[in-house]
Amino acid sequence: MALNNCSINSGTRSTPKNQAIGTLASVVLTIKPDAGYVVSASDFTNNTGSVTGIASVALTNTTTAYATDNKISVTVDLDNSFSPSGDITLTIDIDGDAILSKLVPKTISGTYDTTTTNCTVASQSGVAYSATGIPYSEQALFTKTFTASSGKFFDVAPSYVISTGYADSYTVSVADVYSNNVYLTARTYTVKAKIPTQSITGDNIDFTAQANGDITTTSTGKITAVRINSAALPYQRSTRQIAIYGDVGAQFTLGIVNEDSTPYNFIDLNFVNGGSVSATIPSTGSVRFDINIPAVLDDDQYDFTLSTTAFSGSQLSSALDPDNNQIHSFSIQQLGDITYTVNTDASSDSRTYTSNPSAVHLGTPFFEFEGQKQVTSTLTLTDDADIVLTRLPLASDFISTNTNSSNSTDSSIDIASVTANPATLNAAGNQSITFTVVSNIDYFGTVASSHTLDLGNFIAAESVSGGGGFRQYTPAVTGAGGGLIIANVRASYNPGPSYLAGLNSKNVAIGTPNDTDLYSGTGALYGNFYGNSVSQITLSISAAGSSAIDNLTITRGTLTGQAPAQNLYFSWTGRTSEAIDASSDMTFTVGVALANEP
What we know:
Layout: E1 3-4, E2 6-8, E3 27-33, E4 37-38, E5 44-46, E6 54-61, E7 72-78, E8 94-97, E9 99-100, E10 106-117, E11 124-133, E12 138-147, E13 152-153, E14 159-164, E15 170-179, E16 183-194, E17 200-210, E18 213-214, E19 222-227, E20 238-246, E21 251-257, E22 277-280, E23 286-293, E24 300-307, E25 315-316, E26 327-334, E27 338-344, E28 358-363, E29 373-382, E30 398-401, E31 412-421, E32 432-443, E33 449-453, E34 470-472, E35 476-479, E36 485-493, E37 502-505, E38 507-509, E39 517-527, E40 537-542, E41 549-562, E42 565-576, E43 589-594
Parallel strand pairs: 1-8, 10-17, 19-25, 27-33, 35-43
Antiparallel strand pairs: 2-3, 3-7, 4-9, 5-8, 6-7, 10-11, 12-16, 13-18, 14-17, 15-16, 19-20, 20-23, 21-22, 21-24, 24-26, 27-28, 29-32, 30-33, 31-32, 34-38, 36-37, 36-39, 39-42, 40-43, 41-42
């Protein structure tokens, strides 16, 4: 060996020839570090051995170990009885290394505490640990094992927290022991430290290990429940977690295949070289799997099969397996955008139109927006005959399909508003009307949905000279301070053989004879009844002398809603006062009187 990254000088002493040197002063040499290096006496060793004339060699720091101004004093004590006969050179052997200042060893130290319940070791406090090494090196500190008492297990796994110090300074690994592959009965912590650039003291680690669970020697082996979000998946890549619940020790097999019958790989978490997985319910009472669903370009379906047939001591609960074949299966769909259509019933209305407008909106199944999403549909209705508004359209004029979230496949969509342009009532000369419809969307379901505007509720029937065609009722409402709207007026009629009949119809066929009874009539008044109860509202019905309807009666029905948005339903009867033709006036007026007028 030798001196590395440092140097040592030499020294001389004079004494008479052939005479014992006696108490001649010792020779003191100095080891100096090279530039950028530091020294500590503890890193150097005296390997001189036995040399005539030397009694001892001692190494000491001149200041503080590894300080930038520190050197090493090498004190060579000469043998008092040594009698040199002439000049002589005494050689000592000092070996060691000066080190770079950044590699000076540092120390990390602290204590740990343990809180235990039902363990084979008692709680401890202030157990010291320390490690010294080159900065950034990893050094072992200690290992600690917690073992549950006989018949007990850790229902909550032991844990630790770095209560004082930086968590990044420590690496803690865990090794667990399970009884029957179910009960956690022991945990061993191996604690290591990353040596800091400056020594650290006073750190503390707290361990908690409480074995409060009782090991059950028998199990019914029942799988009791499955939990997973079964809503339709989007085309994009996503993850679902499935949780299987049951008695501790119950065993099962789970398999998943896509629509191409490709099985899921529970190890690689994809649909490549997959297969079913078998598992045992642990002491936590459940097993969980993350299922990675890939992105697709078209609709897909994933079929899940949970089975206990391979395990004689396990079974599915009756809720999962009502037919008792030990197999429970279900599917989750992966769907693209779902359509929501806003249109009119122009193609099926009693009159003919030259357009059948519609608007289509797309959305991801069961994606809930932050708040409601609003979409606007513009529907332009045209005809080669005048389009006459008898009243303005209402949200209630729409027929909804799969929009009211009444089942697991429906969308949740409401009509917020509908406007018409032009909006002039009973006006001639308009053969084009544009409806602007605003819809509020909570979410899209998994099936197509629609809102269809029933034009016959508020557009007069097309006038047709000669036979054929219909005349629509054109009711009006007065009283109650104004502002009420009358809508959904319908009645049935049956003039007999060779005539058209109507059932709950919004119009009367041209050609219907005089004195035809209009029966089972219905309608509704929308608006503000100013706090009056239904018994405080009086209805009357009348028609002008020019009207094609007489013998009118009206009966008040139910009142719903809260002011100012209320609905008063009524029933009515009447009779035609003339043979209905293309110019027949189908107007009648409903009068409203309130006990407490506004």
